[in-house]
Design goal:
Helix content: 40-55%
Shape: globular
Order of helices and strands: EHEEEHHHH
Structural class: alpha+beta
Number of helices: 5
Length: 104
């Protein structure tokens, strides 16, 4: 497809979220990597990181209208601080988030 979403293979929460992405964005390939800081969405348009990677994958992934709409909300520049801060917190605490959600 030329579009790949890379996630942290060592994070249970990240693996579960990536599996969910497979169903939500069927045109996007999903692949594990030993990432430490952020997810990456790679396409012909370049790389997007963190929450913008998730938003871009949802928009480009060919899913339902509400999936694409959710992706567009994640990409709204006016909400970058909110989404970025939330993403950074989850990324910094992914071990805790994985344990709390039972997704080790």
């Amino acid at each position: 497809t030329g579009m790949t979403f890379y996630y942290d293979r060592d994070c249970g929460f990240c693996r579960a979220a990536a599996q969910r992405l497979v169903g939500l964005a069927p045109l996007v390939d999903v692949a594990p990597l030993p990432l430490r800081h952020h997810a990456v969405f790679r396409s012909a348009g370049g790389d997007e990181l963190g929450h913008r990677a998730i938003g871009s994958a949802l928009v480009a992934g060919g899913g339902a209208w509400w999936v694409r709409a959710a992706g567009r909300i994640l990409l709204l520049r006016g909400l970058d601080r909110l989404w970025s801060g939330s993403y950074r917190w989850v990324a910094a605490n992914r071990g805790l988030v994985s344990r709390l959600t039972g997704l080790r």
